[in-house]
Amino acid sequence: MSELFETGRIIDLILVFMALEGGILWLYRRATGRGVRAPTLIATLFAGGSLLLALRGALTGSSWEWVAAWLTAGLVAHLNDLRCRWNN
What we know:
0% strand; 88 residues; mainly alpha; single chain; flat
């Protein structure tokens, strides 16, 4: 189990599950017209994915610039997510 964390593979698994979740939520919205709108869903998943990639970088010893870049991308996506939700 510690190897999953040391190599960052745990983050890869979580990202796969997030992609599956996004696909299922998109299909649900498309089939029923209910649920999360696509722009909000994308912003939410991108914000979370960016934070996960920053964590992966920190776990695997990436340079601080990459970690900071992913954190910044997460902030931008989070602010976009808030904008999408605020209008609803």
